[in-house]
Each structure stands twice: as C-alpha cells, then as structure tokens.
Specification:
The strands form 4 sheets. The chain has an 8-stranded mixed sheet. The protein has a 6-stranded mixed sheet with strand order 8-2-1-12-19-18, with helices on one face. The chain has a 3-stranded antiparallel sheet with strand order 3-7-4. With about 400 residues, the protein is α+β, with helices and mostly antiparallel strands. β5 (about 75-80) and β6 form a beta hairpin. α10 (about 360-375) crosses α11. The protein contains 11 helices and 20 strands.
C-alpha cells in the first residue's frame, strides 16, 4: 500500500470500479477501498438493465467486451392491464435498446479489468474516515483486512460507497428527499423468463413486474405496503399474486423456487451539490432513484465517467470540468427522478380498488392512453426511458 496516491475511491460498485478503471487506464494513480470481500461484491444481485448509451460508454473505454459478447438486449416491453396485453416498442421510437446484464456480472468484469491488471484495491477494510476534505491535501484512514491501521494521502476522494456509506455524511448543502408511500417486494425466482421482455402489470390488487435476468433466473416485483415483512409472503401467496396481477389468458407465468425476497420502501433522494472541497460523490452516495424505471446503475456509470474526465482535465491544467461536475451530473439525475415519478403515477395511482385518490387515478389512466395512442407521446417517453437526450 502506498502512502499517497492521486485519487482514493471509496466503494467498489459500478461507480467506483468504472471510475477507477478509467483513471488507471489514463495513467492516474488511484486506490480503491471496499468494505466487503471480492467474492461478496461479485455475487450480490442488484440491477440488471443497462441503457445503450451506457454500454457504448463502457465499450469506448474498453470495459464491455464480455457484456457485448454475452448479454441479450431488449427494445420493447408490455403493459398488462384489464386482462390484456399492450406491447410497446421503445426501440421503434428512440432507436436504442437495453442490455440485460446483471450488475454482479458487470462488477465481476470491472474488478477483473482493474484488480487483475495491477490496479490497487483493498477489500475487507473497515473504520474508513475522511480527513481535511476542504484542503488541498485530504486523506483517508482505514483499518485494512489484516487489522493494520493505515492513512492514505491523496489529491481527491471519490465517494462511491452507496446509500449506507460513510462518504455522503460529509456533504454540506441540501438533501432533497421523496417518499412514494409504497413498498415493492423484490423477488428472484429460479425460473426461466415468461416473456421476451419486461412486463408491467397494472392491476387493482397492486402493481407487479417481470424482468428477465438470465435464461434460468427472473426478477419479479410486487407492490406491497411500506414496511411490510418478507415473512408475510410465502411461496404460495407470491405466486398467487403474480398470476393475478401479471397473468393473461395467452401469457402464463412460469413458476420456480424463490431464492430472494426483500421489501424495498420506495423513496428517492438527491444531494445538492454532489461535492464538497476535494470530495466528489458518484452513484447512490449522491442520489438514489427507486427501481421504478431501472435508472440507478445507469446514473452510477454516468457519474463515474464524467468524474474521470473531470479529474483527468484537472491533471491537464483545466479545473473547469471539476467545477461543473455536480451540475453536469444533476442535469441527468433530475430528468431520471422526474421520469421515475411520472412512471410511478401510471404504475401505482390506479392499482387500488377503489383508488386512494380517484383524481390522480384518472390522470394516470389518461397518461397511459396517451402513451399507447399518440406517436408524439410514445417518442418522448421512449427517449427518456432509454436515456437518450437526457442531459438538458
């Protein structure tokens, strides 16, 4: 371990590893600190849909070889409501697709590209603390996996350690939050996908979703009360609700063993600004968007690549991109936050019979009819759904 480096990256998720790979490949010294083991982060199931612009960005930086050679892609989804199927092709309107690549596979690729090619990374660290972040000589102290206390001086600290990490506690400015007032039961089933694309079920019993992960594993979501317990959802109840909310006569669901059940309370937050002194946050350290529109992983990569370019510009004598970093990233963050809220209204406002707010339920139904019936509305929706032209 060196006593000083250019950038200390706290957290080895997609944001931290994406940033570290680009910095190292461009000759900028960096060290990654990760609380968990390598085996843990390579196995942890998270997001699975990567927007085409993000795949292109990974490829341009030499980080997408395995993804491009193995990941299937999708350009359509299907609403299911009133016992019928309502397909929607966003590729038709936006010309781009999603790549289906579970986050743990991307993390595995990024770890291999970094750690196995000489990148400096410490797994299993604890007691991470930041020091002098508003000075020109910040540092990070931590306890290494072998129990040794260490201090690492640097030029910049990149906070990429997520919603529960230590780095976001150091931000000043505003923390803007939103609570949707609903929960989602997140499920992984050892079952092949029941459709060739995403299914969104809009049903009086609550929202449901189906998303392929691999040829043998499928992600499902069920709307539930916030704060609900996984214990309230045994196998039989889960599949009964999925069949009711997603099943249609010509589109049955394939059942399988449930290998993960987690209740997610749907909420969002945004830190403004995403930096303080020499500390710059990326990914869920800086902002959280509920999985309603599958945006979190894509935002993490967006932040990472902009931060890498800004740090590179600094070492080239130009601090303008670093000064603009927060505003640059927040432009897309807020577009994705707004879209998540818009889509949530369609998914959830009319899923209780009778609806909690009949007026909002009628608005959501009008939005859905417009989306399915208007080419102009379909094109506008598709651009933000796939992340095209989102930086405005």
């Amino acid at each position: 371990m060196v006593a000083r480096t250019g950038v200390v990256v706290v957290g080895a998720g997609p944001a931290g590893l994406g940033l570290a790979n680009v910095l190292r490949d461009r000759g900028i010294d960096c060290v990654v600190l990760e609380e968990q083991t390598r085996a843990f982060i390579e196995a942890r199931p998270r997001a699975g849909f990567i927007e085409e612009w993000a795949v292109r960005a990974l490829d341009e930086r030499g980080l997408a070889d395995k993804l491009l050679s193995t990941a299937p892609s999708q350009g359509r989804f299907e609403f299911r409501f009133e016992n019928g199927r309502h397909p929607f092709s966003y590729e038709q309107w936006a010309g781009q697709r999603h790549f289906v690549y579970p986050q743990q596979l991307l993390v595995t690729d990024l770890v291999a590209h970094y750690a196995d090619k000489g990148g400096d990374i410490e797994f299993g660290v604890r007691d991470v603390a930041l020091h002098d972040i508003e000075s020109a000589t910040p540092s990070v102290t931590f306890t290494a996996a072998d129990g040794t206390a260490r201090r690492l001086g640097c030029d910049f600290i990149a906070g990429c350690d997520g919603a529960q990490g230590v780095t976001r506690r150091h931000l000043a400015g505003d923390l803007l939050t939103h609570d949707y007032g609903i929960g989602w039961l997140a499920l992984l089933a050892e079952a092949p996908p029941s459709a060739d694309g995403v299914l969104f079920g809009i049903h009086p019993r609550g929202f449901a979703a189906h998303m392929a992960r691999t040829p043998t594993v499928t992600r499902f979501y069920l709307q539930c009360p916030p704060g609900d317990s996984e214990d309230n959802w045994p196998h039989e109840r889960v599949w009964s609700e999925l069949h009711q909310r997603l099943g249609v006569p010509d589109g049955p669901l394939v059942e399988g063993e449930l290998i993960e059940k987690r209740v997610l309370d749907m909420h969002n937050y945004v830190h403004e600004p995403m930096c303080r002194g020499r500390l710059f946050l990326a990914g869920e350290s800086a902002h959280l968007v509920a999985p309603i529109a599958a945006k979190g992983l894509n935002l993490a990569l967006h932040d990472a690549f902009h931060l890498a370019e800004a740090i590179e510009a600094h070492y080239g004598g130009d601090d303008g991109p670093l000064a603009r970093y927060s505003d640059t990233c927040l432009a897309r963050v807020w577009q994705y936050q707004e879209f998540s809220q818009w889509l949530s209204d369609i998914f959830h406002s009319s899923t209780v019979d009778p609806p909690a707010d009949p007026f909002r339920a009628r608005l959501a139904q009008a939005r859905l009819r417009r989306l399915l019936g208007s080419p102009a509305a379909a094109a506008a929706f598709s651009e933000i759904y796939i992340g095209k032209a989102a930086d405005f």
